[in-house]
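SEVERITY: medium
COMPONENT: batch folding queue
REPORTER: lab tech (J.R.)

DESCRIPTION
The queue accepted two submissions in a row. Attaching both inputs and their returned structure tokens so the on-call engineer can compare them side by side.

ATTACHMENT 1
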Amino acid sequence: METKGVKVSIIIPVYNVAPYIGECLQSVMQQSYKGDVECILVDDCGLDESIVIAEQMIKEYNENEGRRTKDDNVRGRIRFRILHHERNRGNGFERFEDAWRNKFGDYFGKASVDREGEFGRDATDV
């Protein structure tokens, strides 16, 4: 993955959030920031289909991005990565520690994915 130009990293811990991960990623994908963004999903060994859903959405996003022309460049490109933990690390900093260490952006934000989060079109707008 090319990291040149990435100024912003969004870190999303993922653990048993299948009902919400789609809306969260949609919000990231629709952000209006014109620069390139890195989005790191941290797979914390959940037991549901969260990562499968995320992988499918990312695949579709990347396929659509490949069809963009210079004229379509309304917003910056989002570069997705998934870091897989070998075991569940629980809540708190441990859940996104690896992403923090491996981020490329100068600035970062953490998106929470849970039933209490309300994701609108611009919930993760940079």
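ATTACHMENT 2
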Amino acid sequence: MSEQLYVSAVRITSERRISSPEPVCGALDVEPADDVRDDVATVVPTTEPRGHGRQVVDALRGTGDGMLSTEEIMAMSRGD
């Protein structure tokens, strides 16, 4: 496979397994339960925060006015 495929992020599970998005699996022609040799895919660790959730948290950090306590926010999210 000579084509290079760049992916913004994959997830390492608590069992130390790599969870790859479907487009990556399709490009590598791998299916669930397939073994992948190290010459098929290269994983490069990153220290940069990735993912939509991290972007949302970073965007909201420091924007609260401090008027609600954590307990009040949790009660609202539970519908109390």
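NOTES FROM REPORTER
The chain has a mean pLDDT of 77.
No errors were logged for either attachment.
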